[in-house]
Amino acid sequence: MLKAKILFVGPCESGKTILANFLTESSDITEYNPTQGVRILEFENPNVTSNNKGTGCEFELWDCGGDSKFESCWPALMKDAHGVVIIFNPDIPSHRKEIEMWYSCFVQQQLLQDTQCLLIAHHKPGSGGDKGRLSLSPPLNKLKLVHSNLEDDPEEIRMEFIKYLKSIINSMSESRDREEMSIIT
After folding, report:
1. What is the pLDDT along the chain (185 residues), one digit of tens a residue?
2. CB 7 within 8 A of CB 80
3. Least buried of 39, 76, 140, 185, by fewest C-beta within 10 Å?
4. Which GO terms describe its molecular function (predicted)?
């Protein structure tokens, strides 16, 4: 059975924990409580199987605290990650700058492919959720960007997240198949 490790990273107060709970169907947290270090949620998704074999997949979602005081823990968090989801609040201008640092640390320096990264512009309840064209500077403008608004359209982000999980599992299956072939030949 494949087990994928997905990191949720991004600036403080961007909505990582709320999204993590929603997407893994964990408990609802209503008040803001900054994540200290990391919170690991294990889950399975019946909609995601590896290749056409129908083998189930397990996921570990690592909800990482956004405070830079945890920076010394980041190398341990990044180890063996298969995917990185960068979550930010598009209504906070400083977040757009900050996500460049998250991308550099967690994607580029870990030599992950851009396909292993998903950007989520998370709109807080009551923010109006303006889904206008977000102008992000390169290399962020090459990443898949999805908007999340749990108030107006929660299913949209759930479907996008499942698509993302499927792409991660497919790339893991392909690399495992390549490894097996290299052993055989």
Report:
1. 789 999 999 999 999 999 999 999 877 666 677 888 899 999 887 777 766 566 678 999 999 999 989 999 999 999 999 999 999 999 998 998 899 999 999 999 999 999 999 999 999 877 765 666 688 888 999 999 999 988 888 899 999 999 999 999 988 888 888 888 899 87
2. no
3. 185
4. GTP binding
